[in-house]
Design brief:
By secondary structure, the protein is of the alpha+beta class. Helices cover about 25% and strands about 15% of the residues. The protein has 6 helices and 7 strands; from the N terminus they run ααββββααααβββ.
Length: about 200
């Protein structure tokens, strides 16, 4: 769930260069149709409301929801909420700002005897939303953390190295664990010699 160690100073420089365009980009990404350009506010995209309380702060380049859970987001946050990794979000931010940045060995698999896991495709993840929703975890948080659902209906947690390469997946059944059967919360995939920390749930 991590990306490259990108210079935070460069991220800040990009946001400063964009200025109020940060708001325009987020408005477009979030699809805010009721955005008041003069007062820089809109109804929150994270909950239902009639009185606009989602307000942009030009000093911090962020939107803050003054109602509900009081969520605060910047361009990078919004891009990640839409399925981008941190690296991908920063790339798009730099592109908007016209800033060139070297991302090193992006995508390079450096561990030659390591069996890298395959990426779980993005899907509707209905079971994940339903199960984690009952545990108080919102859809926005699930999307932000890039939690996915595999073909068996399990929660898939992705872990990336500093080259933004997927190195490990932890899977947990999207249902209540039957303590009577002593089921582990995370189950190891069978037949993997070089990657003992990669997990996959195989239904009984």
């Amino acid at each position: 769930m991590t990306g490259l160690n990108i210079d935070v100073g460069k991220v800040q420089e990009a946001k400063e260069k964009l200025g109020d365009r940060n708001a325009e980009i987020m408005v477009s990404l979030l699809g805010l149709k009721d955005y008041d350009e003069k007062n820089m506010k809109a109804c929150s995209p994270y909950r239902d409301e009639r009185t606009p309380s989602f307000i942009y702060d030009p000093k911090t380049y962020r939107f803050h929801d003054f109602g509900g859970d009081g969520i605060t987001v910047d361009v990078v946050d919004v891009l990640m909420q839409q399925g981008n990794t941190y690296l991908q979000a920063c790339k798009k931010l730099f592109e908007h700002a016209g800033i060139e940045y070297a991302f090193g060995e992006e995508g390079v698999k450096t561990r030659h005897q390591y069996k890298y896991p395959n990426e779980t495709p993005l899907n509707e993840k209905k079971k994940v939303y339903e199960y984690l929703g009952k545990r108080g975890i919102s859809k926005d948080t699930i999307d932000y953390l890039d939690i996915r659902e595999d073909e068996h209906g399990n929660c898939v947690l992705n872990y990336y190295d500093t080259n933004d390469v997927l190195t490990m997946k932890k899977l947990r059944p999207a249902r209540t664990i039957d303590k009577g059967k002593k089921e582990p919360k995370m189950l190891v995939r069978k037949g993997v010699r070089h990657n003992p920390t990669s997990f996959q749930y195989e239904p009984h």
